[in-house]
Amino acid sequence: MLDPSELELINQENMEEISQLASLEMSGNGVASREETSAVVSEKTSYPDFVYVMAANIFQGIQIEKSPERVLIKYGKEPLLSWPQSDDESLQRSSYELAFSTLKYQDILETILIDSCIFPSTTIVNHLNSLIIVMLYDFQDRKFQPRVLPDNEESISEVQEVENLLNSFKTKLAASLARCRIKHDALSIYHILPETVRKQELRASTLPLYAWINTCKISPEEVYGNLRRKGYNKVKSVLHLDDKVFAVDQHCYDVIIFPSHLKKDLKNTDLFKDYKLIFQDKSRSLAVHSVKALLNMDDDILMVNTGSWYTVAHMSILTNNNTSKIFVCGVQSQDKDPDVKKLFTKMGCQNIEILHETFVDIESKDHRLQNVKVILLLPRCSGLGVSNPVEFILNEHEDTGLLKDLSQGGPSESKLQILAQQQCEQLTHAMKFTKAQAVVYCTCSVYTEENEAVVKKALECQNQGIKIQPYRLSPPVLPLCSLKEIQLSTDKFFRMEPSEITNGCFLSILTRERDPSETVSVKDVLARAAAKGLLDGIEVGKSAKREKRRKKSKTSLPKPSGNDSNSIQMKITEFLTRERKTSRSMPQGGVSSQIRKPSKSTTNPLVPCERQTNLGRTRPEGRVIPLKHVEIVLPPVMFPFSSTQGTRFQIPTNHFCYRFHAMNFCNRLSLSMRRNHRKFWSSRWA
Q1: What span, in angstroms and rounded, lies between the C-alpha atoms of 214 and 217?
Q2: By the 8 A CB rule, do 340 and 466 touch?
Q3: Catalytic residue set
Q4: What is the pLDDT of residues 368-409, one digit of tens each?
Q5: DSSP class per residue in 405-473
Q6: What is the per-residue pLDDT across 169-212, written as a single tens digit (0 to 9) for each?
Q7: Rounded to two decimals, what is the model's pTM?
């Protein structure tokens, strides 16, 4: 052991380096300068007592349990004294962040407590050990400086007791921390963490904020104008997010991106207070927009494991102009129904129905779900693609056990298999709903076992019924805005890798193979076109009526006239009618491969000569060949929104299909030929 003078020397030389344990604002190599570290510590605010208590209870529930021979400190089963939950979201977030940081360094902190002789010399009961280790993490983060609290701050006796204990061992704790750093040959003990955890922390420090627009309350243009009046400037790329700026997301037209440091300022604006803008992870917006692109006008939706109610609200708002109904299953607690309905009312959502059964317990033939055409499945996953797990857990109401896996760099192999089995079970059950036509499967995992393997296994295990068309893997309906996204989606899966601008996301779309006997109605085609933003300024109702009138005009026959001058026209009309009936009786196959021969010219000078064409067989004289409907579909064209005018919110995707309908052209050509034919005969008879 070192004498007190050596301990003081170590304390002076290494104080600033060993205090970088929780400092996440590091440079690329993870080492901050001494001036920056001092500034961070001087500006760091002290936690109130009840934050320590909340963090200790959270840590006690997620702490890593060890085998009996490796147990250094026992944390007990009994939680600390109950303390009323604070409505302050920032304090609640601070409690989770403090517990998560302590969890990441649990082994190091336990070693420091043993090496400094705090254990087993103290007589504090076991259930306070979680409070000791949580407060030790914050103590070294403050460079072992005492807390500064307001005079009116209410104190808790257990917190004061632990704080006095740590202050009495201040020098020994600092020396033990320095020895731990030297033992691992690390510039700071931050570098002792697994590489995946360090990369995750680095991404979390730069991850921007994503917020979607509640179009039931405000339009995107109004949001942009409101932000500009508040001093925000619109930019094109998230790479330029600094100061007071915002950008429009390229995948979702109603999603805005902000720098992370503006969250506190934005939360105080009317846009967020009035639920006109809602903070949420982008992966959830990608999922609901994928569902929207698959919907027809009157299709219902079933949402499974939605987590946050904001996901349900976003889906409701996107289908506000339709008559669709949204069913949400898995809400077992009915006590929250009044609060949830109140939230939906504030946000302007009216087409939501809550089901209290779990998804796997709902029968596929449930009478309430007979009009459900699309199922959105958001299963619980490992969440390794999430850069800031605390934000994700609080916003999406995920299980706090996720923090335990992420603190170690990922789940164990056994837990990963359990998650994959549950996901496959839910996906297989979703494919049993006979009326459903599509399933959207979305996770925040980067593991193949939870993504591609689950989808492929479910497709292999589906029931190949005679009356039900099987599911197949469909390409993404979201726009691919970069070469990397195109490369990642070559196998029909949509992937976003974790980066400094977004969390990781995996999307898969399963659709039933179309029954050849079924025909798609005009209403459904127009609904899908409207969902993709291809009917800008065109009303669907009028288009349907126009289509009906067009069909009616095709089937109706002109009434014969009693005038002698129109007798020839009557004969022509009767002839065309007979030919039309003959064409309808012909088999409806593809274009014949046989080549028609050119018709021979007639010797009668009164009969007009038809234009000679290079055909294979003789065409009967005067016969009118009915023209068939030919549809030419060009491949989709993608634009990465690189125009100077910015993104238009009316176009939710960048996929455009240009169709050339030959029928209208042929109708006009046929009409022109008839008119010329009539003029010719009129001149002859005259």
Answers
A1: 6
A2: no
A3: 444
A4: 999 999 999 999 999 999 999 999 988 888 788 889 888 888
A5: HHHTTS--HHHHHHHHHHHHHHHHHHTT-TT--EEEEEE----GGGTHHHHHHHHHHS---SSSPPEEE
A6: 999 999 999 999 898 888 888 888 888 888 888 888 889 999 99
A7: 0.70
